[in-house]
Amino acid sequence: MENSEGVKIESTVVTEEPLISALDIALFVVIITVAYFWYFKRDKQSSSSEKKPYTIQPSSLSSIEQTSNSSFIKKLKSTGRSLVVFYGSQTGTAEEFAGRIAKEGARYKMKGMVADPEECDMADLVEMKEIQKSLAIFCIATYGEGDPTDNAMDFYEWLQNGDADLEGLNYAVFGLGNKTYEHYNEIAIYIDQRLEELGATRVHEIGLGDDDANIEDDFVSWKEKLWESVCSHYGIEETGEESNIRQYKLVDCSEVLPERIFSGEISRLKSYENQRFPFDVKNPYLSKIAVNRELHKSGDRSCMHIEFDIDGSKMRYDTGDHVAVYPKNSSELVDKIGELLNADLDAVFSLLNTDEESSKKHPFPCPCTYRTALTYYLDITSNPRTHIMKELIEYASDPKDQEKLKLMASSTPEGKKEFHEWILRDNRNIVHILEDLPSVKPDLDHLCELLPRLQCRYYSISSSPKVYPKSIHITAALVNYTTSTNRVNKGVATNLLAQLIPTNDELPQPTIPIYIRRSQFRLPPKSQTPIIMIGPGTGLAPFRGFIQERDYARKEGREIGEMVLYFGCRKKDEDFIYENELQEYVANGTLTKLHLAFSRDQPEKKYVTHLLEQNADELWNIIGEKSGHLYVCGDARSMAKDVHSIIVKVVMEKGQMTNSQALNYVKKMEQQKRYSADVWS
């Protein structure tokens, strides 16, 4: 017999019974029947799944739906292409450059395609030699502390850990970096060298773009020489055709139902109405603004303390992480574009890729209105690049405007000078260009195709989850400045945040899309480890979180190490942010020392770097004798470099080392995560 759980129990009664009872037979039949149906149903499902046709959804952001198992080689072969341009991009610039190269390939009888390495099986690079006169180009950005971008991480690790035979692969690399950072173009340089080590042939020398100077100029100069090398390597000639072929075609969507129209969502339609965890770059969380208060005490500048409410979101952050904020363009600028181009901004449209094989069907979420595209999806405040000047030429009715655009689009010394002065130095955006060249009237759909995507803005989180688990704090300086043409340019994100003031009544609170980006900027694992923090201005932000976390540990009765903070601003009575908080931490013993530099409170300017030099003994005691950690946050262009030089000098003098030994010591500190920087330029 069986118990209630179906487990068979042997009988202890001795009786004359058949070896197989009726119940046994019934159970056997049931088991056989279930097994039969399970086996054949599974087989049928397997069979049908193998025969199931694949389709590409227009709104898909992923690659070609696995039809070719992420094989870009099959795609190249099936479409008669020989050029593939991969991009590793965090902000969209590398992707833009990749698209420009692929488009120009047609001038050299090389039909090209753009590919995201994250969506490709990069092991297929070994098969590139099977395609006649093939070429792989890599536009690769270096991000953070010398890291690959998120979408190039798998490819980078494949190169590091693999030993594929890439003989027969022809390649070229262009890197996107910033010289103010220590690991300038580190990833591009590694990829260029590693491909050669694996047997690939370098068709053209690596190009290194510097975003701190003029990365557009760097790219254009490299690209021109690239095509010269390509012609020489393959024995081909430029066709001379200078056609501006549209990548996307306009689709009228006036009949589309309102519920199928995007209204600012990053990826998924109605994602802000139906929020789904987890939240990330493609699926941000619509956070309420809980607090928005001014930190400056006086003066004409502004610095905001903002708290994002994440209660109920399941979002978790660590001290030192960043929060990404999705901004939107001002309605004033958006309306100005509509006015200048005499366009109906509320017309619903879509841009559909003319390359049916492309995995990227739309340049941004479509369908939407022009107003939505210009408000949420397109960057209308940055300086346009030279390829946009080139595309605008055909829309200029005034010969003078035409000539000016042609000059700026050219790669001649005169053209580069004009572009640098008129666009970069004078800080003109697309709105200013349309205002100052009044005969230029591009089709609005074409302009939407040309403009880059509006990117999220990253802020160092200025709170600890131990103290504030249900909110994320940031410290943001309002960006406003007057250009040489007497225009006032405004920071997109900070000016939006300045308007989002929570109310105390029953009205809906202001919201903004956010997500958390993990960081390597971390407190030491042991709370007893002494640390030095150097953060002038808003560079104080992550250290506010550090101090909160150590204060929390102290209140729990745990031993905490020395905490020394260097903070600087212009004037004590004007922009000494979080003054009361910091003084309280000094009073209760959490903050061991607070070194302050007010640059304009005395005749001679005084900065945190001056204080560091004065306190060389204290500095060496913590980082040298006690193996403490040192953190820097703020301006990369000058402050962080000056701090690094001072640290090396102190290590030399107090550690009694040569310059070479001191540099190695500091380098080892960085490798051990004892010297960390969270900087921007």
TrEMBL record:
GO BP: any one term: response to hormone
Cofactor note: Binds 1 FMN per monomer. Binds 1 FAD per monomer.
Gene3D superfamilies noted in UniProt: 3.40.50.360, NADPH-cytochrome p450 Reductase, Chain A, domain 3, Nucleotide-binding domain of ferredoxin-NADP reductase (FNR) module, Translation factors
Protein name (Swiss-Prot/TrEMBL): NADPH--cytochrome P450 reductase
Function: This enzyme is required for electron transfer from NADP to cytochrome P450 in microsomes. It can also provide electron transfer to heme oxygenase and cytochrome B5.
Pfam families: FAD_binding_1, Flavodoxin_1, NAD_binding_1
UniProt keywords, alphabetically: Endoplasmic reticulum, FAD, Flavoprotein, FMN, Membrane, NADP, Oxidoreductase, Transmembrane, Transmembrane helix
Swiss-Prot/TrEMBL cofactor(s): FMN; FAD
Classification via PROSITE patterns: FAD_FR, FLAVODOXIN_LIKE
Localisation: Endoplasmic reticulum membrane
Regions crossing the membrane: 20-39
Positions with a binding annotation for FAD: R457, Y458, Y459, S460, T475, A476, A477, Y481, G491, V492, A493, T494, W680
Domain FAD-binding FR-type as annotated: residue spans: 282-524
List of residues binding FMN: 89-94, 141-144, 176-185, 211
Keyword NADP belongs to the record: yes
Catalytically driven reaction(s): 2 oxidized [cytochrome P450] + NADPH = 2 reduced [cytochrome P450] + NADP(+) + H(+)
GO MF terms, alphabetically ordered: flavin adenine dinucleotide binding; FMN binding; NADP binding; NADPH-hemoprotein reductase activity
InterPro entries xref list: CysJ-like_FAD-binding, FAD-bd_FR_type, Flavdoxin-like, Flavodoxin/NO_synth, Flavoprot_Pyr_Nucl_cyt_Rdtase, Flavoprotein-like_sf, FNR_nucleotide-bd, NADPH_Cyt_P450_Rdtase_alpha
